[in-house]
Task: inverse folding
């Protein structure tokens, strides 16, 4: 499809908007109107009007919208009206109405919160509904999550930080996965050197935190699947964290145990010996045929057994992840998944919508869902919200990803008092996140401000090992960042 940008340069947002309707379509760009199928001609007609002509599916669909005069931010207003006109044309052409309207950002709840602060909740609701075309049930979801997030965000101060530790290894790679994770069997020779460097980085990071007067409040060890490495190796990582990091102000310590086929009595007992307060056991589905389809080596019974073993070991804060829209999953089998998970009575459940990333095996193999899958996935997330809420497991954080089936969202649900603080802090960008390991990204939050600066680690474990000294040099940017704001002199 050709995306024509006539009298404007708002390419990025309009391209993302087209991806809602045509996630894998190749898009070419033109600064002149090309009126042939398939093409979208977006144009600033004059200073007071924007419009779109869509040539698609054998028809021509057009929309013109006024550009409000004297509006704050004329450029932003032009972009908004172009996006709305393009969206309205695609809705007419396809018969598909996206529940998030023209919103393509990762953090809709954060936007909603900001609008509530600037214009009040009633006007924010109207803006989401009328200007952004967001469905009422998604506005309601934003309101619920914002209410929960506010309480968690209030616990953080300008001196607060969280620590993220990446262990990018898994038993196998799931068909939908795009993360930089490596099977343990193939990467076995790399793991000892990786753990050596990871522990060195954790030590160096703890010294930077102390030097800059930062206070550690949450820890999240993720992956990959941290429990896929040997218990002694994981123990060494936790020992390093506890030896070098000041845990005096720690409120939460999460280890993403993840795959049920990696969980056993030894590694659970080891985790329990540390101040770990929260773990995840992630089935994704409780349907064995679906698990086989996505490349998992465990069954739903394995999930139940792992969960019960964790309870017996003394874990009283367990999260479970599910995915709506998986290949071969049906509305009925997903309902069964939700009901079986509720029977286990976890403290929190995260419901993801399947996101088809370009590097995943599913995408590479052309195993792409039909339009009906999006409609089924929408039913799934609605059903999960209804049933979890009825059982006192309520939404507390939310984020979105590109190329998601049904253009849906990912939502964390939790019982009161069991919300994951780290999840809120990372998505809201509440405070600094110091990150260690391959593909980890450190996010530095300006003290008493909103500016975010990022420091990237190398993506792949072999790069991380071979170029480790460069990572440590980059990490010196933490001190440079805080010095710029005179933080240590306060």
Result:
């Amino acid at each position: 499809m050709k995306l024509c940008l006539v009298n404007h340069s708002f390419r990025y947002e309009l391209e993302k908007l087209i991806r809602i309707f045509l996630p894998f379509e190749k898009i070419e760009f033109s600064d002149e109107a090309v009126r042939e199928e398939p093409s979208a001609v977006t144009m600033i007609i004059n200073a007071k009007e924007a419009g779109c002509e869509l040539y698609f599916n054998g028809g021509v669909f057009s929309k013109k919208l006024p550009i409000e005069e004297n509006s704050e931010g004329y450029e932003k207003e032009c972009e908004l009206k172009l996006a709305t006109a393009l969206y309205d044309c695609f809705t007419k052409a396809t018969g598909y109405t996206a529940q998030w309207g023209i919103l393509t950002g990762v953090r809709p709840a954060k936007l909603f919160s900001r609008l509530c602060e600037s214009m009040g909740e009633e006007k924010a609701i109207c803006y989401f509904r009328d200007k952004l075309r967001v469905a009422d049930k998604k506005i309601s979801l934003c309101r619920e999550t914002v209410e929960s997030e506010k309480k968690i965000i209030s616990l953080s101060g300008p001196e607060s930080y969280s620590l993220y530790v990446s262990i990018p290894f898994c038993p196998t790679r799931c068909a939908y996965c795009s993360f930089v994770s490596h099977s343990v069997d193939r990467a076995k020779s790399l793991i000892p050197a990786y753990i050596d460097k990871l522990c060195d980085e954790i030590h160096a990071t703890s010294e930077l935190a102390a030097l800059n007067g930062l206070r550690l409040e949450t820890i999240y060890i993720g992956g990959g699947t941290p429990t896929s490495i040997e218990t002694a190796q994981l123990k060494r990582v936790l020992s390093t964290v506890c030896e070098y990091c000041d845990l005096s102000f720690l409120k939460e310590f999460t280890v993403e145990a993840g795959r049920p086929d990696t969980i056993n009595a030894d590694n659970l007992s080891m985790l329990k010996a540390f101040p770990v307060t929260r773990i995840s056991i992630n089935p994704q589905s409780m349907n064995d045929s679906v698990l086989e389809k996505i490349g998992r080596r465990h069954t739903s019974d394995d999930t139940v057994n792992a969960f019960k073993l964790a309870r017996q070991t003394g874990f009283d804060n367990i999260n479970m992840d599910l995915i709506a829209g998986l290949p071969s999953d049906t509305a009925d089998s997903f309902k069964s998944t939700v009901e079986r998970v509720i029977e286990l009575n976890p403290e929190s459940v995260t419901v993801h919508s399947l996101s088809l990333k370009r590097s995943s095996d599913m995408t590479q193999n052309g195993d792409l869902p039909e339009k009906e899958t999006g409609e089924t996935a929408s039913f799934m997330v609605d059903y999960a919200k209804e049933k979890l809420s009825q059982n006192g497991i309520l939404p507390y954080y939310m984020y979105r990803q590109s190329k998601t089936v049904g253009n849906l969202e990912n939502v964390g649900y939790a019982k009161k008092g069991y919300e994951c603080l780290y999840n809120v802090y990372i998505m809201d960008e509440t405070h600094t996140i110091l990150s260690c390991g391959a593909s980890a990204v450190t996010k530095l939050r300006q003290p008493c401000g909103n500016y975010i600066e990022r420091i990237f680690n190398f993506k792949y474990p072999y790069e991380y090992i071979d170029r480790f000294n460069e990572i440590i040099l980059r990490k010196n940017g933490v001190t440079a960042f805080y010095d710029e704001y005179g933080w240590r002199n306060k």
Remarks:
- The longest strand covers residues 215-223.
- The chain has two domains: 1-96, 155-475.
- Residues 359-370 have pLDDT under 50 and may be disordered.
